[in-house]
Design brief:
NTF2-like_dom_sf, globular, Nuclear transport factor 2 family protein, Nuclear Transport Factor 2, Chain: A, alpha+beta, SnoaL-like, 138 residues, 41% strand, 6 strands, 5 helices
Length: 138
């Protein structure tokens, strides 16, 4: 864990980096052996990524797909474990291919070791994602 930043501080920093659309910098926050999980990912999307390189490969095209304009809310909670923080956050933006609005809320659980993300689990609504991209909603 970082000596100067708490897990909550590190999560807030990760949100700022995400908003800046620098996916390389976001991936660089991760440990080389990070595990990222998206339990509610839509069919055909990965539910688990292993390793920093896989995370960057997954994220690098995100700014070309969705233009996140701002984080509309972000509440970060410290936990009893000093290496774990939980974020409840929402964004607004546009899907670049079709101009559809992109409004999404996330619940993110992040574990750090020596200031790097070692485990990242994110929950979000795949139906809203599919709808924004122009697919059918259920």
């Amino acid at each position: 864990m970082s000596e100067t930043l708490t897990a909550a501080d590190l999560v807030r920093r990760s949100l700022d980096i995400f908003l800046s659309k620098d996916m390389k910098a976001w991936a660089d926050q991760c440990d080389e052996n990070v595990v990222v999980e998206f339990p509610f990912a839509p069919e055909g999307s990965p539910t688990r990524l292993e390793g920093r390189a896989a995370v960057y490969e997954y994220l690098k095209g995100y700014p070309d797909l969705i233009d996140v304009h701002r984080i509309t809310s972000a509440t970060v909670h410290a936990t009893d474990d000093p290496d774990v923080a939980v974020a409840d956050w929402s964004v607004t933006g546009r899907v670049l291919a079709n101009g559809n609005p992109y409004d999404m809320s996330y619940a993110t659980f992040v574990t750090f070791k020596d200031g790097k993300i070692v485990k990242y689990r994110e929950y979000w609504n795949p139906l809203a994602f599919i709808k924004a991209l122009g697919g059918e909603s259920f």
